[in-house]
Design goal:
This protein is mostly helical. 71% of the residues lie in helices and 0% in strands. The two termini are 22 Å apart.
Amino acid sequence: MSGNQLPELLPSWYRSLRSANRSPRTIVSYDLAATQLAGFLTEQGLPTEADKITTDHVRAFLERMVETRASATARQRYASLKQLFKWLHEEGEIDA
């Protein structure tokens, strides 16, 4: 098992969000998107290693959101995941 499993990286991301003075509501929203993505990946048998998650994996997750949630919810998950993957790149967990 790789050391960059998404669920294992999330506590560090939350610390960085708190240290950047993000609002508790924002952190909860980001957490929901990230944990839902991790759950989706696991459920679908897809990789949860940050460097193995592809654009197609994220698109499949967002497609599921569009099918099962309000469009505003899907847009919010997309925005949250953009921030997550930006942080993963900044931390060197993934390539651009």
